[in-house]
Structures are given as structure tokens and as C-alpha cells.
Amino acid sequence: MRRDRYADRVEAGRVLAESLGRFIGKDPVVVGLPRGGVVVAAEVSRALGGDLDVIIAGKLRAPQNPELAIGAITEEGAAYVNKDVLGYMRITEEYLEEEKKRRLEVIRERLRSYRGVKPKVPLAGRTVIVVDDGLATGSTMISAVQAAHASGAGEIVVAVPGGPPDTVERISEMEEVSEVVCPLMPRMFFAVSQLYEDFHQIEDSEVMDILREFAR
């Protein structure tokens, strides 16, 4: 059935899982990007029978415009920065370093809560499917992929319900990525929210409930 949006993240995860059926029985690790991506990843993991985990890559925010991503940083402190955005916004190195420190503190605090519920799943040698609830600039996904690669993932597949074609192409060109699965790629893309009828904010408590379920 042709569609242009999903009812919610649960439906998106189920549709995404249909495109990933070849991984059933191959023991993948499905890693969700908190918070919304974890809801999608949980549905994928249930369908494929794989392990579930999280990778936290925090958005580096532009000055005076926290909704605009200038890059992202992982829980290990590795950063990806969009040099094109830095150039036209004339962001200083001092601001960038301070923003990295701020976001890393937030990431590590959140991680303590998550890891207290479910220990980290080792990725070395495993097929890792990195899931978010959508792509926009791709900065956060790029950092997450780099983090999975640094953790020794054997194969990395990026799976998202939707995103702009140019971002999907950029992710697919990464050396670390073997494949990108993205069912919806609107020509006119404004925000991830346009992919959903219900795009309410996901709270940490919901993420922790999901992790608790898979920890059992």
C-alpha cells in the first residue's frame, strides 16, 4: 500500500521491519537513537528477533537557534560537524568546544539512567541496524554510525522511516554503511514531523520502559 505518512512511530517501526525481513534469524543488534528512534527500533527488534540497544548522539546546536543542528557528538565524545553550516554561520571554535562540553554532559547523564536499566550490548562483529524516527540534516545519524563503527560493528545498516533524498544519499555514501533503508523520501521535505500524524515528544520514562522490557 502506497503511503505518504505514518500514524505514529509504532506503525513506522512495523513498516520498516517489513523492509528488513532478511535479517530475521541473523541475530542483529537494533540500536535506536533516543528518544523517538527507540520506539521505532523496538518494533523493528520485536519483528526481527534481535537485541535492542541505544546509541546516544546529541545534537550540537547553532547559536541563537537550538533547533538547527550544526553537528552531533557521541557518548564517547566523538563529534561530527557540518562544515558547510559552520562556514556560512561563522561559528567560532570557542563556541563549538563549549557546545560539545554542554551536550556531552547531557548525554552522559541520560546514559547513566539508561544503562542502569539495561547494560550496553557489545557490537563487535555483529550486524548493527541503526534506527531513528526520521532523518533531517543527518548529523546525528552520522555520529551514531561512526560510534557503531568504532565499537567494532561487523556490518552497519541504517534504517529510518523517512527523510530527504539528499540526506539519504549522503548517509548511503559513508564507507561504514552497507545499506540505507528508507521507505519515504518526500521531494518537499521540511521536518521529520511531516512523516507522522502523531509525532508527540517521547519522554525518557518511555525509553526506559522499553529498555526494561528488552532487558528481561
Characterise the protein shown here.
This protein is of the alpha/beta class and 216 residues long. The protein has a domain at 9-56 and 120-215: Rossmann fold, CATH 3.40.50. 40% of the residues lie in helices and 19% in strands. The protein has seven helices and eight strands, in the order H-E-H-E-E-E-E-H-H-E-H-E-H-E-H. The strands form two sheets. A five-stranded parallel sheet has the order 2-1-6-7-8, with helices on both faces. A three-stranded antiparallel sheet has the order 3-4-5. Helix 6 links the parallel strand 7 (155-159) and strand 8 (179-181). Helix 1 packs parallel to helix 2 (36-48) and helix 4 packs across helix 7. The longest helix has 25 residues, at 93-117. It starts with 8 loop residues before the first helix and ends with a helix.
Given the C-alpha coordinates, what overall shape results?
globular
Distance from N terminus to C terminus (CA atoms, Å) equals 35 Å
In total, the number of strands is 8
- Count of runs of 4 or more consecutive helical residues: 7
Taking Cα atoms only, what radius of gyration do you get, to the nearest Å? 16 Å
- CATH architectural name of the domain at 9-56 and 120-215: 3-Layer(aba) Sandwich
N-to-C series of helices and strands? HEHEEEEHHEHEHEH
List keywords for this structure.
globular; 3-stranded antiparallel β-sheet; Rossmann fold; 216 residues; alpha/beta; 7 helices
Question: In terms of topology, how is this protein built?
Answer:
Elements: H1 9-18, E1 29-32, H2 36-48, E2 51-54, E3 57-62, E4 65-74, E5 79-81, H3 83-89, H4 93-117, E6 127-131, H5 139-150, E7 155-159, H6 165-172, E8 179-181, H7 204-215
Parallel strand pairs: 1-2, 1-6, 6-7, 7-8
Antiparallel strand pairs: 3-4, 4-5
Helix pairs in contact: 1-2, 4-7
